[in-house]
Structure formats: C-alpha cells, structure tokens
C-alpha cells in the first residue's frame, strides 16, 4: 500500500498519554526536527526523483518518519555527540539501525546524513540509490531476506544473495511497509539476540503469513483484547481534506475510519494486532503510535523501547550474564513454538520455507551467488 501526501505541509502531533510508563517525546521537538529536515533535504530529493512507480510526495512521508525516529532515538540512547550542542552526560554511541525492505532508500539516506550509522537492504536495487553519494550507496544492499528458521531447513542454493537477520547486538530494526517481513520483524529481532532482543519500529502494510502468502488475519475481539491492546504512546497526525463530493458526509466517513476500533477491524489493523500478539508472546513490551495521512490511517509498533531506554541511558547496555543466557533459551523456545504454530496453516516449517523461497526468488531477476550475511 502506498500512502500519498496531498499537502506540502505535514502536521505532527506527539500525544502525551498520562497512563503510560516511561518518558514521552515532545510534539515541539518532533515538529522542529521535521521542519529542519524538510528545509535541508526536500528540494534536492524532489529534484533528483527518478522512481516511476512511486509519488515524489513520499519524500515528505520519509522526512516525517525520519524526524520521529531521530527524536525517539534521542529519548532512548541520548543525543549524538557529533550533532548536538549540549549532549547529555549519559550519551552513549548509537548502536546502529537496519532498514528492512528500504525501497527508494530515502529514509536510510536522511538518517545517515544526520549522523546515525546503519544500513538498508531490499530485494531489488532502486534507481534512486544511484542519486545518493557513494558513501550512502555503500550502505544500501540488494539482498533477499530468508528467515533463519527457514534457512536452517533448506537444503538448496537459491542462486541469489540473501540475508538471514543476523544483525549486531543492539541494532534498531526499522520495518516500514516491509510487506511479508512485517510479522517476521519481532521474531528476527529476538532471534538476532535472544538474551537481549533488538528494538524495532514497524509500520505494517500488506498482510502476509509467515510463509509470505497473502493472508488476512482475523481482527481482535475488541479494542481491549490482548491482541489489539497496547499502550498508545505516540500519535502522528497529518491534515486531510476531502477533494470532492458531499464534504460533510465524506468527513463523517473519514472520521469513522480514523478511530482505533475502525482501524483494528481493517486488514492492516488486524495485521498490526497479529504482529503485536507475536511480539508479546515472545516477550517484548510493545507500544503503538498512530500514523495519519490524507485518506489513510496506520499504526506503528515500537518494541523494546522501555527496556533499552532504561538500560542504555544507565550505560548498562546488553551485558552478558547467566540469567540473560537462560532468558535467551526461553525466548528461543517461544520463537520456535510461534513459528511452528503459524507455519502449520501452510503445511509446516519446511513447506513454508519452500513457499517463501519461490515467492522471494520472483522478486529479483537474474542469478547471483548465494551469500549468507552475518
């Protein structure tokens, strides 16, 4: 699904909920960062736009998402020494990010230019990557993701470069409109570091099963149901305006759609609820942020924020211990239970793995050398 902005101005509203745990991020900081990024990057990105199947208005969407992530990361890890005039005494080096299915690469470009180290990968190399400086292009990789549980049961070479989700400790995972990778995101975050699962930020899109096939998950029973509930920490609202027809009627319809209960009963809402359910079953604390764009509503899921904020700013990081190793064993057991259960509808893990490979191979043309990324 492609979200298009019809206005050149984006209003960001970071909602402070009194019943939440942990710190909040000021709406003023988000808006200020977005305004700065817009002035600094928008014109050049629009001038260099080369994608044929995407609207150049995605520049605004990626700028707003970058502003949200930057302020979120400041609250979790502290400010960057290289970019902040008055860094906190608790400042630690940012651990790095990975952008799954990074598409046009704009988000990766902005974050790297802002001083945050990281990489992005996608099944297909995009034309827009060539418009970025050489040092940015080096951080954009053409790879297909094969989940580790699938890679472990496959006995065949698939002929293309792959990634199995073996990310460095403490890496922050971005999963923005990553389609079939959406439900896998909390699983790969835990598999990468079972004793200290990686944090993640997910914006759900097309609904897929773990095997990668189209699948619509049933909606949660109610807004208070475990699968649909969560702490609504942030809200990002972008002004919308009907373009034709009875404005009063159209606005009434849009207002009805832009409710939590209405969203959770939609395909994407059900996907978000399922992803939350899997994450919580594994052991993540998951929070929600509402994303509103003209004609659409979406939700981002944030996993592991509270734990990382607590540990990172105390300079404890993810220290190894026997207790954490034992916790990691429990997490691995839960992961395999989830994967086995979810893959049962496709005939089991081995069948699901083969289905995944067949679908992902079609995403790229030509053959390459199979490579397992570490």
Automatic annotation (TrEMBL):
The keyword Methyltransferase applies. Belongs to the TRM44 family. Adenosyl-L-methionine (AdoMet)-dependent tRNA (uracil-O(2)-)-methyltransferase. GO terms for cellular component: cytoplasm. It catalyses: uridine(44) in tRNA(Ser) + S-adenosyl-L-methionine = 2'-O-methyluridine(44) in tRNA(Ser) + S-adenosyl-L-homocysteine + H(+). The keyword Transferase applies. It is found in: Cytoplasm. Its EC number is 2.1.1.211. This is tRNA (uracil-O(2)-)-methyltransferase. One of its GO terms (biological process) is tRNA methylation. Keywords: Cytoplasm, Methyltransferase, S-adenosyl-L-methionine, Transferase, tRNA processing. PANTHER family: TRNA (URACIL-O(2)-)-METHYLTRANSFERASE-RELATED. Pfam families: AdoMet_MTase. GO terms for molecular function: tRNA(Ser) (uridine(44)-2'-O-)-methyltransferase activity. It comes from the Eukaryota. It comes from Penicillium concentricum.
């Amino acid at each position: 699904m492609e979200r298009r902005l019809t206005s050149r101005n984006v209003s960001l509203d970071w909602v402070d909920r009194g019943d939440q745990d942990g710190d909040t991020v000021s709406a003023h900081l988000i808006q200020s960062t977005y305004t700065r990024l817009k002035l600094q990057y928008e014109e050049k990105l629009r001038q260099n736009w080369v994608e044929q199947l995407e609207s150049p208005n995605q520049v605004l969407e990626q700028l707003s998402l970058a502003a949200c992530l930057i302020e979120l990361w400041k609250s979790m890890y502290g400010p960057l020494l290289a970019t902040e005039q008055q860094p906190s005494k608790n400042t630690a080096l940012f651990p790095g990010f990975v952008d799954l299915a990074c598409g046009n690469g704009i988000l990766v470009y902005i974050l790297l230019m802002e001083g945050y180290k990281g990489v992005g990968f996608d099944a297909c190399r995009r034309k827009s990557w060539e418009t970025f400086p050489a040092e940015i292009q080096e951080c954009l990789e053409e790879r297909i993701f094969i989940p580790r549980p699938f890679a472990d049961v496959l006995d065949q070479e698939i002929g293309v470069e792959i990634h199995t989700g073996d990310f460095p400790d403490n890496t922050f995972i971005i999963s923005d409109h990553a389609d079939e990778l959406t439900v896998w995101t909390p699983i790969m975050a835990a598999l990468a570091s079972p004793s200290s699962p990686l944090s993640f930020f997910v914006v759900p899109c097309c609904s897929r099963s773990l095997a990668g096939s189209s699948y619509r998950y049933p909606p949660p029973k109610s807004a208070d149901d475990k699968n649909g509930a969560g702490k609504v920490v942030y809200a990002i609202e972008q002004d919308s305006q009907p373009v034709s027809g009875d404005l009063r009627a159209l606005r009434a319809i849009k207002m009805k759609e832009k409710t939590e209960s209405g969203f959770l009963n939609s395909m994407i809402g059900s996907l978000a609820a399922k992803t939350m359910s899997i994450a919580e079953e594994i052991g993540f604390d998951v929070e929600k942020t509402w994303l509103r764009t003209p004609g659409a509503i979406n939700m981002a899921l944030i996993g592991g924020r509270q734990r990382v904020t607590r540990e990172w700013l105390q300079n404890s990081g993810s220290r190894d211990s026997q207790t954490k190793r034992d916790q990691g064993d429990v997490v691995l057991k839960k992961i395999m239970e989830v994967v086995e259960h979810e893959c049962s509808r496709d005939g089991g893990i081995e069948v699901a793995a083969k289905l995944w490979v067949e679908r992902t191979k079609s995403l790229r043309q030509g053959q390459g050398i199979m490579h397992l990324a570490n």
